[in-house]
Design goal:
Elements (H helix, E strand, L loop, with lengths): L2 E3 L5 E3 L4 H5 L9 H9 L7 H11 L4 E4 L6 H18 L9 E4 L3 H14 L9 E3 L6 H9 L4 E4 L1 H9 L10 E4 L2 H4 L5 H10 L5 E6 L4 H10 L4 E3 L2 H4 L5 E7 L2 H13 L6 E6 L2 H12 L6 E3 L5 H12 L5 E5 L7 H18 L10 H15 L12 E6 L6 H8 L9 E7 L19 H14 L4 E3 L4 H4 L3 H10 L2 H24 L59 H15 L18
Parallel strand pairs: 3-8, 3-9, 4-6, 4-7, 5-6, 7-8, 10-15, 10-16, 11-13, 11-14, 12-13, 14-15
Antiparallel strand pairs: 1-2
Helix pairs in contact: 3-4, 4-5, 7-9, 13-21, 15-16, 17-18
C-alpha cells in the first residue's frame, strides 16, 4: 500500500482504489534491466503521473501532462523512451541514429535529466547512449559527440537550433520529442530556436510535453508540436501546495534583516531552508549580514559557473549545507516583463553574432551582452531543480506574480512531507524608509500579496499571519544595525567579485580533476565566509539577557506547525552524564583558593 508521512513524520496509509493498488512498474511490461534499475533506485510503486503517462507513451500517443516537480514526471517520459529503444535494438531494427530529443529550459535541469537517464541505464549502459549538450564545450566537441549518433540527446533549444543550423545534428530519424517544463521554454526566450526545431522535426514524431501549469505558452506548443494529444492532469497536480503551511509577515525593509537574524540564529526553524531574494546584490548583502552572526550560507545565482551551481544543489541535497540564498532574478521580473526581457535577450544574441565593428556597436559590447543574455536564459532556480528535504522556503523578497510564488513554495513539502513557506511583505507606507536597504519591486508588495492570497484561496490554501513578539525581537535591533553598517556597497562588490573568482577556479577543478578524484569533492565547500567586512566576534554569540525568560521560542507567539527534518545534535547520553556529575558535585565542599594559598611553599 502506498504511504505518506503525516505531520509527525509517521507513515499513514492513503486510500486508493483496487486498480491503483494493483499497479506496479512490472505491469507496464518494461524490460527486466529497466525494472532492475528502478528497484535499485528505490522506486516501489509508480506515482499518479507515471501510472497515467507510461502506458499511453508506450502506445506511441502524444501526451500533454501537468505535473509539478518531484511528482516523478522525468521517469514518466524516460522509461517509455528507454523501453522503445531497447525493443528496437532487440528486434535488430535500430540503425545508428539519434532516437530521442529532450528539450529543457536550463543547464541545471539538463544535468539532472542526464543523471536520471544514466541511473535507469545502469544495467543496459552498452545498449543506450546519452549526450548532454549543455555542458560548456566548444562547437567542435559538440559536433564530435553528435557524430557518434547517441540514442538520447538532452539540450536546451538554443543548443539544438545552433547544431541544426551548422548541420551537426539532424532530426530526420528522431522518433521521440520531449519538452520538459514546457511553460518555461517560451518565457525563457527560445521562440526562434523552437521555430527552427519545429521545421526540422519529421511528421509522426511522438511528442510529450511536461508542464507544472497550463498556460497560453503550453497551449501554443501543443498546437505546434502535438497531434491529437492526450491531456493528463493527475490528482496530485490538482492538490499542488497542499502540504505547505503558508505564512506572511508585514514588516519594514530593515525588519526583514532583523527577523532573518532572529529566525536563523535562534534556530526557530529547524532543517534546511531556501531563501529567495530579488537580485544578485541582495544575495551577497544577506550572506554577509548573516556571516556577522556566525550563520553560514551559500549563494545560488546565474552569475556563478554552471558546474558550481550544480554542485551546490547536489551538496545541499546531501545535507552538507542548511541554507541556500537564491537570486530569483528571472521570475521576479514578472510574467510580462520577463517575456519582454527574453525577447530583448534574443535580439542581443543576434547582435552579438554579427561581425565585430558594426556601426554604433563594438565587438566587446556584443560579447558582453551575449554572455549576459545567455546566462539569464539558461538559469532558473525556483523551477525544475529538485531540492530534497526542504523544511522552509523564505521569500525574503516577495515575487511579483502568484505564478512565481507557487513555483517557489513548491520547493518544500515534497514526497508526502509537510513544509513551511514564510514570506516578508513590505507595506507601501514603509517602502523606501531606508533607501540603502530598499528593493524597488517591493513597492508593489501589497498588490502582489493580494493577488497571491486570492490565487492560493482558489487552490484551497490560506496565507496566515506569522506572529512574532516584536517587543522581544526589538532587543536584537542594535546588533542588527551594527552588522548592517559593516555591509557596505563596497563590501558587497568585493564579496561578489571574490566569490565569482573562487567559484570559477572551483569550476575548472570540477571539470578537470574531480571526475578522477571524487574524494576531493569533500573539501570543496560553497558556504565559506566572504571576509569582505570587518570581523565582529561578539556578534556571533547571543547573550542571555537578550532572550526572553521562556527561551528562544518565546519570540513566536504561537506554534506554527513546521516540521524539523534535521536531527538534534545534542547527545542524550552525554547530557545525562553531565547532569549526573553536576548533582554529585553539588553537595561537595568547595575550597577557597585564597584561604589555602601558602606563600612559603608546599609543606611549610
Amino acid at each position: 500500500m502506498k504511504r505518506k508521512l503525516n505531520e509527525g513524520d509517521v507513515p499513514t496509509p492513503v486510500t486508493q482504489s483496487a486498480d491503483q493498488n494493483a499497479v506496479s512498474f512490472s505491469t507496464f511490461g518494461l524490460d527486466s534491466r529497466l525494472l532492475q534499475a528502478i528497484a535499485q533506485e528505490g522506486f516501489s510503486a509508480p506515482t499518479p503521473v507515471q501510472t497515467d503517462a507510461i502506458p499511453l507513451a508506450l502506445e506511441g500517443k502524444d501526451i500533454l501532462a501537468r505535473a509539478k516537480t518531484g511528482s516523478g514526471k522525468t521517469a514518466a517520459y524516460l522509461l517509455p523512451i528507454l523501453e522503445a529503444i531497447l525493443r528496437r535494438k532487440a528486434d535488430n531494427r535500430a540503425s545508428r541514429e539519434s532516437t530521442a530529443l529532450i528539450l529543457v529550459p536550463t543547464r541545471e535541469l539538463a544535468q539532472q535529466v542526464t543523471k536520471v537517464v544514466k541511473a535507469f541505464c545502469t544495467f543496459c549502459a552498452q545498449s543506450v547512449t546519452v549526450v548532454n549538450l549543455t555542458l560548456k564545450t566548444s562547437e567542435a566537441v559538440q559536433r564530435s559527440l553528435l557524430a557518434d549518433l547517441p540514442d538520447i540527446v538532452v539540450a536546451t533549444p538554443a543548443r539544438i537550433s545552433q547544431n541544426i543550423n551548422t548541420s551537426a545534428f539532424s532530426l530526420d530519424n528522431v522518433k521521440h520529442l520531449v519538452i520538459d517544463e514546457a511553460d518555461l521554454v517560451l518565457s525563457y526566450g527560445y521562440e526562434d530556436d523552437l521555430q527552427v526545431i519545429e521545421r526540422a522535426v519529421p511528421k509522426g514524431t511522438q511528442t510529450i510535453l511536461m508542464s507544472a501549469t497550463m498556460t497560453t505558452e503550453v497551449e501554443a506548443l501543443k498546437g505546434r508540436f502535438c497531434h491529437d494529444p492526450v491531456v493528463l492532469e493527475p490528482k496530485e497536480a490538482k492538490e499542488e501546495s497542499g502540504g505547505v503551511t503558508q505564512y506572511v509577515v508585514q514588516c519594514g525593509e530593515d525588519e526583514k534583516f532583523l527577523l532573518a537574524y532572529v529566525v536563523f540564529k535562534l534556530k526557530l526553524i529547524k532543517g534546511k531552508s531556501i531563501i529567495f531574494v530579488g537580485d544578485i546584490d541582495r544575495c551577497y548583502r544577506l550572506k554577509l549580514f548573516l556571516e556577522q552572526f556566525g550563520v553560514k550560507s551559500c549563494v545560488l545565482n546565474s552569475e556563478l559557473p554552471v558546474n558550481c551551481r550544480i554542485h551546490v544543489v547536489e551538496e545541499f541535497n546531501k545535507n552538507v549545507y542548511d541554507i541556500i540564498i537564491a537570486a530569483d532574478e528571472h521570475e521576479v521580473l514578472g510574467e510580462g516583463r520577463a517575456k519582454r526581457k527574453a525577447k530583448n535577450d534574443t535580439e542581443n544574441d543576434r547582435i552579438a553574432q554579427a561581425p565585430a565593428g558594426d556601426p554604433g556597436d563594438t565587438g566587446q559590447a556584443q560579447k558582453k551582452r551575449a554572455k549576459s543574455s545567455k546566462r539569464a536564459k539558461e538559469y532558473g532556480v525556483s523551477r525544475g531543480i529538485d531540492f530534497h528535504n526542504v523544511s522552509c522556503v523564505l521569500n525574503f523578497d516577495l515575487p511579483l506574480t502568484s505564478r512565481s510564488y507557487t513555483h517557489r513554495i513548491g520547493r518544500t513539502a515534497r514526497a508526502g512531507k509537510t513544509g513551511m513557506a514564510l514570506s516578508f511583505s513590505v507595506p507601501s507606507s514603509l517602502h523606501c524608509k531606508i533607501k540603502a536597504l530598499s528593493f524597488q519591486p517591493a513597492a508593489q508588495d501589497e498588490a502582489n500579496l493580494a493577488q497571491i492570497s486570492t490565487d492560493q484561496a482558489q487552490r484551497g490554501q490560506e496565507l496566515k499571519p506569522y506572529h512574532f513578539d516584536m517587543t522581544q525581537v526589538a532587543a536584537f535591533r542594535y546588533r542588527m544595525n551594527d552588522a548592517l553598517r559593516a555591509v557596505t556597497p563596497t563590501a558587497i562588490r568585493e564579496a561578489r567579485t571574490r566569490e565569482l573568482r573562487q567559484e570559477l577556479l572551483k569550476s575548472e577543478k570540477l571539470k578537470r580533476h574531480f571526475e578522477e578524484n571524487p574524494e576531493d569533492l569533500k573539501g570543496l565547500r560553497h558556504d565559506g565566509e566572504s571576509r569582505a567586512v570587518r570581523i565582529q566576534p561578539h556578534l556571533k554569540h547571543v547573550p542571555g539577557y537578550l532572550l526572553p525568560r521562556t527561551g528562544a521560542k518565546g519570540i513566536v507567539k504561537e506554534e506554527v506547525g513546521f516540521v524539523g527534518l534535521r536531527k538534534e545534535t545534542d547527545n542524550r547520553r552525554r547530557l545525562a552524564k553531565m547532569r549526573k556529575m553536576g548533582k554529585a558535585k553539588k553537595g561537595a565542599k568547595r575550597s577557597d583558593p585564597l584561604k589555602t594559598f601558602n606563600a612559603k611553599g608546599r609543606g611549610k
